[in-house]
Amino acid sequence: MKKITILGATGSIGTQTLDVVRRNPGDFEVVALTASENVQKMAELIREFSPAYAVMKNEEKAKELKDILSSPDCQILHGMDGFIRVSTLPQVEVVVAAMVGMIGLRPVMEAIRAGKDIALANKETLVTAGHIIMPLAEEYGVDILPIDSEHSAIFQCLNGEKKRQIETIYLTASGGPFRHSTKKELESVTVEQALAHPNWFMGPKITVDSATMINKGLEIIEAKWLFGVELEQIHVLVQPQSIIHSMVGFCDGAVMAQMGTPDMRLPIQYTLYYPDRNGLDSERLDFEKIAEIHFEKPNTEVLRGIPLAVEASRIGGSMLTVMNAANEYAVARFLKKDIGFLQIYDMIEFAMNHHNKIGDPDLETILAVEQETYEKLERDFHI
After folding, report:
1. Within the chain, which residues score under 70 in pLDDT?
2. pLDDT digits over 205-259, tens only?
3. Rounded Cα gap, residues 297 and 147, in angstroms
4. Rounded distance between C-alpha atoms, residue 133 and residue 17, angstroms
5. Residues of the chain with CATH 3.40.50.720
6. CATH of domain 316-383
7. DSSP state, 284?
8. What is the largest CA-CA distance in the chain?
9. Residue 3: what are its φ and ψ, rounded to 5°?
């Protein structure tokens, strides 16, 4: 029985991870769950999965959780100390890093130092700190197992292969709901339209990131670190049906693709059972009904997420944190309907243009730059 901690248990990836656990009784023990603010959902999960530990973002939410459970059997903790503690418990084998935002960075680093394999869904970990995380994982001999469907696909294609023989990584994208939209049309996009993803059910932040294509830009940066390739070796292809989740081209001209239905439980389960596979009760591809598989070039002139992320990666250092933090701030403002859709790009560009790069930043510098970026945008960006 594999023992796991789930960071971000009430979010989209967290709940789908627990669905995999639920469907495979006896294969996993949930040792710890963490959440930010959703106390009611957390209480339900504790009753169902009986973890030994539960962690909320702050003391107030932890107290609310204790009150709801009246006499909880699990130990309820709060704050960063709590997140780190449950990420480093001796009995835990795998930490599922599904927290949204930079808050997940420190627990992941400490989990690696404690020798835990990381099932990684938190993009910020590699986008802002890939130069720290990957050498650290190598030093402590732990696996970084990608949950994201595209990176899981690449990981699977490389199983048994040598990374030095990679010629091209083809990172596929659905294109989101606006892949054929003009800039004029995007000026009036609503939050509701941006959240209507054609293929995937995800949390609000990542759904907006998919609509802006910044998500694919972040995935380029992640792929660079995960698979040890150069930016020039990574090509984005829009594959609207979300059937091919990514492909790898090798030095001899062979191309391997991982295919499947758009169901996040597949890459989640693959990660949890790695290096084995296990049966999954999900829809299967019916190749006789698939008339064709269609590819398009991404519309990067209108949906500028990819070029902005690639520019930040080329500059490197702290610019990656600035790009990521500016996007987080902008998406939060968009979801509150404070700004328009296109102003997400404007905010990212503004923040990057007003930052002087710090090379090879450590964790404290990364977190300080993140905060400075939020403050800069709040103070100086005018709509």
Report:
1. 198-201
2. 889 999 999 999 999 999 999 999 999 999 999 999 889 999 999 999 999 999 9
3. 25
4. 23
5. 2-146
6. 1.10.1740.10
7. P
8. 63
9. -100, 130
